[in-house]
Amino acid sequence: MKSERSKDVLLLKSNLRPLVQNEKPYILTPTNNSKPKPNQNKAWQFIKKHGVSLLMAIALITMLVNPDAKSWVIQKMMLTGIFNATIDEKTTEVTPISNVDFAFTDAEGTLKNTASLRGKVVFINFWASWCGPCRAEFPSIQTLYSKFENDPNVVFLIVNPDLKDVEKAKAYLANQRFTMPFYQPASAVPDAIYTGTLPTTVVLDKKGAVRFQHEGFANYASEKFIKQLKDLVAE
Fold first, then answer.
1. What distance in Å separates the CA atoms of residue 82 and residue 198, rounded to the nearest whole number?
2. What is the spatial distance between Cα 178 and Cα 90, in angstroms, rounded to a whole number?
3. 146 — phi, psi (to 5°)?
C-alpha cells in the first residue's frame, strides 16, 4: 500500500517539475483595449497642430455672440486713439434742416421733438443694449455727458430705436450706473441722420445743421472732441 502511494507522489512530482522549470515571470502587457485608437491619435495631432488657430476661433466666436466680450475687445482697441471722434471744421450743411427732425419720448413718456431744440447743440446717439460696439463706446459718452450735463446749451439724446429692448436697455443703464437720459423715437427718424446702423452718433449745431455724423463705435471722451463741442456752443 505504501509503495503504491510513494509511486503516486513520485509521479505527481515528476509531472509538476517541468511546469516549475518552464515557468516564466508574469509580464503585464497592454491589451488591445488600452492601445490609443487611431481616431484619438488623429484628433490629438490635429489639436497640437492647430491649437492656436482653434483658440483664436473660439475667442472670435465668443466675441461675436457675447456683447460684453466684444465690448471689452473694442475698448482695448479704442485706447490706441485711432478711433477718437473729431468734428470736421470744413463740414458744410448739405442736409436741409427740416430733414433731421423727429419726435421722441423721455423715460416719463413726455413727447418732444428735435425741432424744439434749436439754439442748443444736440448730441444724438442711437444704440441698443445687445449691441457690443454701443456698450464699448458708452463709457466715453458718459464722460462726455458729465462735462456738459449742467450746460443748458447742450442736450444729449441717447435714443434706443429697438422697442423690444426698452426694459433691458433701462436695466443695463442702471446696472452700469450710466446717468445719461434715456429716450425712444416716437416717429420715423430721417435717413439723413440714421439709416439703421448701431451705433450711430450725430451732432447738430444750434441751427439744427448736421455737424457730425458717424456710424460705428468711437471714443467721444478725447480732449479734442470735448473742445470741439465747446466751440459749437460758443458759435
1. 19
2. 33
3. -65, -25
For residue 100, give the nearest of 197, 182, 183, 211 by alpha carbon: 211
Residues of the chain with pLDDT under 50: 2, 9-12, 16, 18-21, 26, 54, 92
φ, ψ dihedrals at 99, nearest 5°: -85, 5
The percent of residues in the chain predicted with pLDDT above 90, rounded, is 56
Residue type, 32: N
Q: What residue type is assigned to position 74 of the chain?
A: I
Per-residue cell: 96: 436741409
170: amino acid identity, one letter: K
Kindly give the interhelix angle for 132-148 and 223-234, rounded to the nearest 10 degrees: 50
CA angle 20–24–27, rounded 5-degree value: 145
Q: Where are the beta strands (DSSP E) in 117-170?
A: 121-126, 154-159
Please tell me whether residue 227 adopts helix, strand or coil conformation: helix
